[in-house]
Amino acid sequence: MIEFGTLVLGIGAIVVAALGVIRIVQGPTSADRVLALDLFLTAAVALAIAAAIGTGRTVFLDVAIGLALLGFVGTIGWARLIDRAAQRSRPADDNVRSGGAKERRP
């Protein structure tokens, strides 16, 4: 039964990675592409867990935890980068519409 679950987990991870490829190719925005990269990372974590279950070695769980932490930090970094790029590309008249109050971010 565990072998069947591991097989389903592996196939599911491959399907998720394929969907990520489609989103990277078709994604009209940067946020879509970042989400696709996050899907790749999720698939990698799932494959590492499947490898840990299949082989019985816990070292793959350490790899999965490291990938999950790296993915979280990477996604936050990409989100901040996209947010800052969007702020720079806004027209200058946004400040006029908001009553002259300009919001500053650190």
Characterise the protein shown here.
It contains four helices and no strands. The protein has 106 residues and is mostly helical. The protein has a single domain, classed as Orthogonal Bundle (Helix Hairpins). The N and C termini lie far apart (52 Å). The model has no long low-confidence stretch (mean pLDDT 85).
**How many structural domains does the protein architecture include?**
1
What's the architecture in CATH terms? Orthogonal Bundle
Ranges with pLDDT <50 over ≥5 residues?
none
- H/E series, N to C? HHHH
Per the CATH scheme, the topology name is Helix Hairpins
Index terms:
Helix Hairpins, elongated
Summarize the structure.
The chain is mainly α. Helix content is about 80%, strand content about 0%. The chain has helices spanning about 1-25, 30-55, 60-90, 95.
SSE topology:
Blueprint: H1 2-26, H2 30-55, H3 59-89, H4 94-97
Helix pairs in contact: 1-2, 2-3
